[in-house]
Amino acid sequence: MSPRTVAVTGLGLVTPAGNGPDAVWEHFLGAGPTARPDPELEGLAVDFSCRLADFEPPALLGGRLARRLDRFSQMAVVAARQAVADAGLDPAEWDGDRVGVVLGVSANSSHTYPVEYAWLAEGRADRVSPLMLPRSIPNMAAGEVSLDLGARGPGLVVSTACASGTSALALGRDLIASGTCDLVLAGGTDSARTRMTCVAFDRLGALSRRRHDPAGASRPFDADRDGFVLGEGAGVLVLEHPGHARARGARPRAHLVGHGASSDAHHFTAPHPGGDGLARAVRAALADAGLAPDEIGHVNAHGTGTALNDPAEAAALRQVFRRPPPVTANKSVIGHTMGAAGAIEAALTVLALQHRAVPPTANLDRLDDAIDLDVVTKAPRAVDVPTALSVSSGFGGQNAAVVLTAA
């Protein structure tokens, strides 16, 4: 085992497909899309999203705490509590100085800004909440998790657009490998399904306009794809030094053994058409893990369902793998959760390793002829998967990849 290997001992998931790893995994096995009309987006050209179906912050957090937090922080705290419980940890008993929090955030305070700016626009500066800044600044996701759980080590937020959640896992691993922390709560959180965010992405031509069929709108790698669907959610993984986990008798769900990152340096929003940047990130992750491409048994793809991203990602995987392993795209079910996407997808990759199965990609009726990948669709595929790769990309040409192995 590499000295940089860390154990994944707990998972927390708050997603449109359910809350908690078991519920979310069962939903993904059935590949039921969660996109539906969104009352908050009524009247817009895109009026649907993948939103949480069963998430009541006052009941989960208490009314006072729920009121203090923006939605992205509410989800982060709930997911972190889940992950800690799943890992069998008691914050009252750990050495908080050795516990860090690293979260990826991209859209962050989308729900706070419109309300407070409306008061200012109406000339009512006196009505702007004194909590606006503590609610909205991106670092508060990590800050509130640290406060809630007594994690007194480094509290950091990473922002690499839609690769943020994956980048956070890498930084959490580094904090453990460097000896700074014994365990890190690492992941991502975002809730971007607001009117302004929706209009902005639509103006870029990034969103699906499949209003007649919202459930079928998110269709990565499909020949009839026309963009992604906005989602929201949070994913937190407990990363732990293997020796620390052994000492307390914890059984890891998986191990995080490699990470790679790169920048396309190509375009401010579009990926490199040949996937060169992502391919470099994947190769770096494999080299870090000490693995050859043919040792990877499954790839959890970024898979946005946009015209440019899907073929670029396919090209990147074809560069690295002589015969790419089975691929799945989780955004087909829960939409694009932005800064949370990489963390949620890494958690689902851990579950795929544990259950030795690859969940299907929803809405893939006809594979694009330009995409030469073995995409799992229609039903889960049983696979003996000892190692897997999860990849992410984002605006600005950000790429990140993590390699996970079965425990």
User: Total number of β-strand segments?
Assistant: 15
Query: Biggest β-sheet: count, sense, barrel?
Result: 11 strands, mixed
Note the overall shape: globular
- Secondary-structure element order, N to C: EEHEEHHHEHHHEHEHEHEHEHEHHEEEE
Distance between the termini: 11 Å
Bin the strand percentage: 15-25%
Oligomer: single chain
Taking pLDDT < 50 over at least 5 consecutive residues as the criterion, the unreliable ranges are none
Mean pLDDT: 96
By DSSP (H or I, 4+ residues per run), the number of helices equals 14
Rg over C-alpha atoms, rounded to the nearest angstrom: 20 Å
Q: Portion of residues in helices?
A: 25-40%
| Helix/strand/pairing category | alpha/beta
Which labels suit this protein?
alpha/beta; 19% strand; 14 helices; 407 residues; two-stranded antiparallel ribbon
Describe what you observe in this structure.
- With 407 residues, this protein is an alpha/beta fold.
- The chain is built from 14 helices and 15 strands.
- Strands 1, 2, 5, 6, 7, 8, 9, 10, 11, 14 and 15 form an 11-stranded mixed beta sheet that branches. Strands 3-4 form a two-stranded antiparallel sheet. It has a two-stranded antiparallel ribbon with strand order 12-13.
- It starts with 5 loop residues before the first strand and ends with a strand.
Give the topology, please.
Blueprint: E1 6-15, E2 18-19, H1 21-30, E3 36-37, E4 48-49, H2 57-61, H3 63-68, H4 71-86, E5 99-104, H5 112-121, H6 132-136, H7 140-149, E6 155-158, H8 164-177, E7 183-191, H9 195-203, E8 232-240, H10 242-247, E9 254-263, H11 276-289, E10 299-300, H12 309-320, E11 327-328, H13 331-334, H14 341-355, E12 357-358, E13 381-382, E14 387-394, E15 398-406
Parallel strand pairs: 5-6, 5-7, 10-11, 10-14
Antiparallel strand pairs: 1-2, 1-8, 1-9, 3-4, 7-8, 9-15, 12-13, 14-15
